[in-house]
Please model this.
Amino acid sequence: MDFNFTTKQTEFRSTVHDFIENNWVKGAWAARSERWKAARAYESSLADGGWLTMSWPEDYGGGGATYWEQMIFNEESALANAPSGGQGADRVGPVLIIHGTDAQKQEHLPPIAQGEVMWCQGYSEPGSGSDLASLQTRATRDGDDFIINGQKIWTSGAMEADWVHILTRTDAEAPKHRGISYFMLKLDTPGITIRPISQLHDEGDSDGHGFNETFFEDVRVPAKNMIGEENRGWYVAATALDFERSGIHRMAGAISPYYRLLENAKEVNSRGRGRKISDHAPSRQALAETRIEIEVARYLGYRVTWMQASNLVPNQESSMSKMFGSELQQRTARRGISMLGLYGGLRPSDSHAPLSGEFCQYYMTTVSLTIAAGTSEIQRNIIATRGLGLPRG
Model:
């Protein structure tokens, strides 16, 4: 593996950086709905510039970019906290390119490439999270349609999305991994109810919920919207999960908080008896460990890209990147809270909060990171069984 970037790749990174600087409006909005509006407008500019699906094959509306160029774009976007296309561009589109029919590709890929639709994911259920294959949402055949009944939970972005890609059970008698089918479903279909879930870090924002419960009551979906074969949807979902877990963004998510904490550590803190955080040996050690771990996470992400560029299929490597990156963000948040002292636990709305309460919010936000997209325990099982060849049980 050679992770030295070529001159062309370095120039490409500069181009991406300049594009983001000139087109993404940084900062926070008062309401989540405003953030989503800004994200959709920005993604339209990504589509216009050919950035949104740059690594897709040109036949499907992509730019035919290399895996490395896509990774550079994703890394720069994450560093700037800028949207990079959402689930349509990085999950649904690639899955359709691999598993979809020609008709599905013609219907769904152009709107994704043009930034016209937003997708969410219907996987987890109240009783089926880590053991996702035990899901109970049913899809029953009825002529040219299937009728879906059940419930999904932690449906990120469901309030704003246009479509959901959803796993359902179509054969209750089959072994649990073999009786699942994968559908695409419009969220304005009759029978769908979406209920926002209040989160730990919500603060006075009536529409600030990212997670949702999604209920399906006699919802009709055309059979032609099934991705892959009936009862073989689990194996299609595995493709989507590999795309979800392989991103460089988890590493990048720790960098900006780390540098802001580093700058704050150099300042004299009047609440700490006039001492700098950097004068405190354990704090210096924590900052050094975080910087080292950021580099480890970066190269774990680069390794996944190297494998893809070498026509290899990352599996346990994606789990390694996902697990380390999400746990890195949690450790960074905990270290920041500890270094800032009791005032570090103040919310952004408190005028006494250091760093505008960023680390309090960051700490609460990172709680879910080692659960979403597969828990750390699930990732460790994958690494152990598929990577190290250890027995199950």
Q: What stands out?
A: The mean pLDDT is 87. The longest helix spans residues 281-309. The radius of gyration is 22 Å.
